[in-house]
Design goal:
Helix content: 25-40%
Protein name: Storage protein
Strand content: 5-15%
InterPro entries: DUF707 (IPR007877)
Shape: globular
Number of helices: 9
Keywords: Membrane, Transmembrane, Transmembrane helix
Largest sheet: 9 strands, mixed
CATH class of one domain: Alpha Beta
Structural class: alpha/beta
Distance between the termini: 110 Å
C-alpha cells in the first residue's frame, strides 16, 4: 500500500511540472509569433467601420441597386463607385494615391517598334514634352534593351511578337483605357522628325479644329497621296486636287477628309469612334484611312494635314521582314498580298454593313 501511495504522489508531481513547462513554452511561442508580425491597432472609428462593412458584406440591410445608365456590366453598383475610364499613369506601391504624380501627361504617343529602329525612335521621342505619355508596342520581343534611353524607363512597354500597330491598338487602346488623354498619336517607327515639334503641333490642331490629323509629308520623299504632301505656304490644309476622276466629290477622300495611316493623330472623341471601326482580324489597316471621315462631322473641316509641322517617311519595310516565306515567295510579298486583301475585305464589310442598315431602316 505504501508503495502505491508514493507512486501516486510522484505521478501527480510529475504531471504538475509538465503542465508548468508546457504553459511556459506556449507563452514563449506566442510571444515570438506575435513580435514577428507588424503591430496592428484599431481606433474606435476603424472598428465601427469594419463592423459596418462586415454587415454590408453579409447581405443584411443591403440596398437593392440597379442603375441602367451605368456602364454595361456595372448596373448593380452605386454610380459613385464606378470608374469607367483608365489610363497609363504609373503608380507607386506606397504613399497616398493623390500624391503619386506631380504632373499627369495630357497626350498619348504610341509607336510600334523593333529594336533596330531604336535610334530613330529616340530622336522622335525627344521632339515631345513630358505632357506626352510614351507607349511602345514591340513586335520583335526586345524590350529591356530600350532602357539605355532614360525616357524608356518611364514609358509603357507592350511586347507581342509579329503584330501590327492596329492589332495592338484594337487590344490595348480601348477608348475607356485612353480616356484620360486629349489626343492619341498612333505612329509608325520610320518617321523623320527633324522639322517637327509635338507641342506646336498640338497648338495648331486645336487652333484649326482638327479632330483627325497628321503632319505633312516631305513631298519629294517616297510615294504619297497629294492630300498628305506638305505645303510650304500655310499652317494647315484640308483639301487638295487629285488626278482626274479620283474624287467623286471634292469633300470626300482622297481630295478631302483624308489622312494616311502611317502617322495619324486622333482626338479623344474621334478615337472612340475609330476604335469601334477597326476590325479584329484585319491587322494592317489598309482602307481605314478612307473611312475615318465617318467618325467626325463635317469631315472635310475636321480632318486635315498640318503643313508647318512636317515629317519624312523613311519607307523602311520593317514589317515585311517579319513575314514568312511561303510557296517560293519572299516574306515581304506575303505581307503585301495580305495588305491588299484586307483593303478589299474592309471595303466589302463596310459597304455590306451600310446596306444592311439602310434596308433595316426602310423596313422599320
Amino acid at each position: 500500500m505504501g508503495t502505491i501511495h508514493r507512486s501516486g504522489v510522484y505521478r501527480k508531481t510529475n504531471d504538475s511540472a509538465r503542465l508548468i513547462i508546457v504553459t511556459i513554452v506556449g507563452v514563449a511561442f506566442g510571444f515570438f509569433v506575435g513580435i514577428s508580425f507588424p503591430a496592428v491597432t484599431f481606433t474606435k472609428n476603424e472598428f465601427r467601420r469594419s463592423k459596418s462593412l462586415e454587415t454590408l458584406g453579409s447581405g443584411s440591410n443591403v440596398t437593392n441597386i440597379y442603375v441602367p445608365t451605368n456602364p454595361r456590366g456595372a448596373e448593380l453598383l452605386p454610380p459613385g463607385i464606378v470608374v469607367a475610364e483608365s489610363d497609363f499613369y504609373l503608380r507607386r506601391l506606397w504613399g497616398e494615391p493623390s500624391e503619386d504624380m506631380l504632373k499627369k501627361p495630357k497626350y498619348l504617343l504610341t509607336f510600334t517598334v523593333g529594336y533596330d529602329q531604336r535610334n530613330n525612335i529616340n530622336a522622335a521621342v525627344k521632339k515631345f514634352s513630358d505632357d506626352f505619355q510614351i507607349l511602345l508596342f514591340h513586335y520583335d520581343g526586345r524590350t529591356s534593351e530600350w532602357d539605355q534611353f532614360e525616357w524608356s524607363k518611364s514609358a509603357i512597354h507592350v511586347s507581342v511578337m509579329r503584330q501590327t500597330k492596329w492589332w495592338y491598338a484594337k487590344r490595348f487602346l480601348h477608348p475607356d483605357i485612353v480616356g484620360a488623354y486629349e489626343y492619341i498619336f498612333i505612329w509608325d517607327e520610320d518617321l523623320g522628325v527633324e522639322h517637327f515639334n509635338g507641342e506646336k503641333y498640338i497648338q495648331l490642331i486645336k487652333k484649326h479644329g482638327l479632330e483627325i490629323s497628321q503632319p505633312g509629308l516631305e513631298p519629294n520623299n517616297g510615294l504619297t497621296w497629294q492630300m498628305t504632301k506638305r505645303r510650304g505656304d500655310r499652317e494647315v490644309h484640308k483639301d487638295t486636287e487629285e488626278k482626274p476622276g479620283w474624287c467623286s466629290d471634292p469633300h470626300l477622300p482622297p481630295c478631302a477628309a483624308f489622312v494616311e495611316i502611317m502617322a495619324p493623330v486622333f482626338s479623344r472623341e474621334a478615337w472612340r469612334c475609330v476604335w469601334h471601326m477597326i476590325q479584329n482580324d484585319l491587322v494592317h489597316g489598309w482602307g481605314l484611312d478612307f473611312a475615318l471621315r465617318r467618325c467626325v462631322e463635317p469631315a472635310h473641316e475636321k480632318i486635315g494635314v498640318v503643313d508647318s509641322q512636317w515629317i519624312i517617311h523613311q519607307v523602311i519595310p520593317s514589317l515585311g521582314s517579319q513575314g514568312k516565306s511561303e510557296k517560293g515567295k519572299a516574306p515581304w510579298e506575303g505581307v503585301r498580298a495580305r495588305c491588299r486583301n484586307e483593303w478589299s475585305l474592309f471595303r466589302s464589310r463596310l459597304a455590306d454593313a451600310e446596306q444592311a442598315y439602310i434596308s433595316q431602316t426602310k423596313k422599320g
